[in-house]
Amino acid sequence: MTTFLAFGKECVGWNYEKTGNPVYLHIKQTKKLVPEDRPLKKPTLLAIGVDGGFDNNEIDYEETYSIVMLPDYVTLPFPSVELPEKVRLAVDAILRAEGAERKEQVAAWTADKKQISAYAMSLQQIGNGVIVPPSGWKCFKCDKTENLWLNLTDGMILCGRRNWDGTGGNNHAVEHYKETGYPLAVKLGTITADLEGADIYSYPEDNSVLDPLLAQHLAFFGIDFSSLQKVASSVVVVVFEHTDSTEMTTAERELDQNTNFDWNRIQESGQDVEPICGPGYTGLVNLGNSCYLAATMQVVFSTHSFYTRYYKNQTLKTAFAMAPADPTVDLNMQLTKLGHGLLSGKYSIPSHEEKDHTNTSTPTATAKQEGIPPRMFKAVIAASHPEFSTMRQQDALEFFLHFLDQVERTNGGKPELDPARCFKFGVEDRILCSSGKVAYNRRLDYILSLNIPLHEATNKDILLSMLAYGRSNDEVVRPRVPLEACLASFSSPEEIHDFYSTALKTKTTAVKTAGLTSFPDYLVLHMRKFVMEEGWVPKKLDVYVDVPDIVDISHMRSKGFQPGEELLPEGGPWDEAESNKPVANDDIVVQLVSMGFSHLHCQKAAINTSNTGVEEAMNWLLSHMDDPDIDAPISQGGETVVDQSQIDVLLSFGFQEEIARKALKASGGDIEKATDWIFNNPDASAASDTDATTSNTTTVADVGLPDGGGRYRLIGIVSHIGTSTQCGHYVAHIFKDGRWVIFNDDKVGASINPPKDMGYIYFFERLSS
């Protein structure tokens, strides 16, 4: 009642011992019974916990209150007029407060709302006499009768974009936009009396949009939207004079795809999955947007390093004693709490719900445990990140890297306590210049991010046949690429164009190859399934990756600097900047100086007018005499002068002094440009720390990292369902106790058919022999 922190019965005594605070409000919750015959609504929105979305089956509770005084646990009823007013006021404030649980009940993976198009209100329509009939539509340029779009400027009906497998349209609608610039199109078949449900696409904005004047724009082409009704895929609706089956919108089609093949395969829906309970088999409650967190943390705590650090070697009481006054903001405390929650088995018990056993349509696979809600852990780990602190869906890979970074910071200076090091390894890039000389750049990483070479698909014949003849049935056929091809793509030579050679003092073409300087205890492979299309629109590759249970990456170890190789001279792109720096024309400078101007000012005038002439330099000089930096030196001894205060600013950002100095030189002393230069030249930092004159592949940065053989066994898979990282669902499959187990939020069961070829992130454990 002093700090307003809440504790379970086992932990409240620890708080009393630590703080001496004796008075506590005891809140007891009793679960309300829910009718078994409660009707389930079909979802119409790709979301959880909102109207139209998937039901998150939130449980209702009845609450009773009492006042407890420690250390003897004396209990007094509440409300009671016998309690001091100060206590009654404190209790009322607590009960009125909106807790973290209530704040996080808003669903996280609701798609972003459409915005009104900038082109809608001023759209100019062409009166060419086009009247669109109520049915019988066909593309104006081909025979397509589905996926048709009506251009709202000229009334042209054209087919949509072609999919990779040959389905969809022939790109005639988007090609028409490129030819004419007419911006808006509406998908025929999605127009109903509820015009907000119509699928309108803005080509210049490259997004689905809203058109407030859609009724007016449709009426221009004779379309009476009030006579159109949407028809679900399994329902037929008869309209008075004619039957119009409207098509699925893009969002509905995405929902349909997510709830069909991928959804069923990854979640193993329809399988007789045996529920599992016990230590190490505890589910995590979906907070509305936390499936990316749940899937990642389940795999993380299946590793020996995190199991040992936050469960085996650290009790809850020890972590609480080490925590600050507010343990809710301490990452070490919350990770220990999460580790004990997941691994102890204390919370991994079946839900005790009365079921109607006469209803044989309910499969046993729906039985599940209650699981634990990771609210405090999510609040702590997301506090320093602007995206993870929101209620939107996130990328599991970005969260994994952010999580490891926070763990490393928490255990900073104590490598022996840092469990994140089990994932860390060294990478070495070898750059072969056309001069025959080489450079070695080294860096550290937690994940091996792999491109998926679609041209290496093992089922190319089938795919080519589909492109030629179309799909014969509804079977999902995708490119199937071996993992070995993805690993080979990482190590294969890559040409670097416009590489500045310090040996040749000019730009040339170099060849880069990559290898690992150390092999981690746990190898994490990220499959680059999300690529950027034109306009920076993320797209997910429809592809299978054949991943074996055992992989051997021994051949990927870097060999380091070899005898007979010659290193490139020290330097980098900043040298090119120095060599290309304009020099003032002496004749212009002499003439200006003779007029009484300072030598430095005359040099600047000549340089800033590209030495075009005395008159141009004079005009520049007269208009810039009051510039604050007019007296700043241009160069000193051929080298750009760098202010130490500017270096100190970059040092405060965490950059090394040598790199800060080089960046400021290359950017003319501009701190903002220098920061951009550092991020755009990541190898510069590595190059300055690389001792490439030795054949030893272990650098200073590699010291203390785990290392060993290159054979690994697959132990975990994080799979993603959906078309982008901003929507969908994540599920984890983990190899435990000799079998695969599915962790789907709070549902934990024995996996029957783990989706090894559909993973987004793969976790491998090094084999001891």
UniProtKB/TrEMBL annotation:
UniProt cross-references to InterPro entries, sorted A to Z: Papain-like_cys_pep_sf (IPR038765), Peptidase_C19_UCH (IPR001394), Ub_carboxyl-term_hydrolase (IPR050185), UBA (IPR015940), UBA-like_sf (IPR009060), Ubiquitinyl_hydrolase (IPR016652), UBP13_Znf-UBP_var (IPR041432), USP (IPR028889)
Residue span, UBP-type domain: 115-225
Superkingdom of this protein's organism: Eukaryota
Keyword Zinc applies: yes
GO molecular function annotations of the record: cysteine-type deubiquitinase activity; zinc ion binding
EC id: 3.4.19.12
Domain UBA positions: 583-624, 641-681
A Pfam match: UCH
Domain USP, first and last residues per copy: 282-767
Residues that hold Zn(2+) according to the record: C139, C142, C159, H172
Active-site annotation: C291, H729
PANTHER family, sorted: UBIQUITIN CARBOXYL-TERMINAL HYDROLASE (PTHR21646), UBIQUITIN CARBOXYL-TERMINAL HYDROLASE 14 (PTHR21646:SF10)
Function: Recognizes and hydrolyzes the peptide bond at the C-terminal Gly of ubiquitin. Involved in the processing of poly-ubiquitin precursors as well as that of ubiquitinated proteins.
Record family assignment: Belongs to the peptidase C19 family.
Name of this protein: Ubiquitin carboxyl-terminal hydrolase
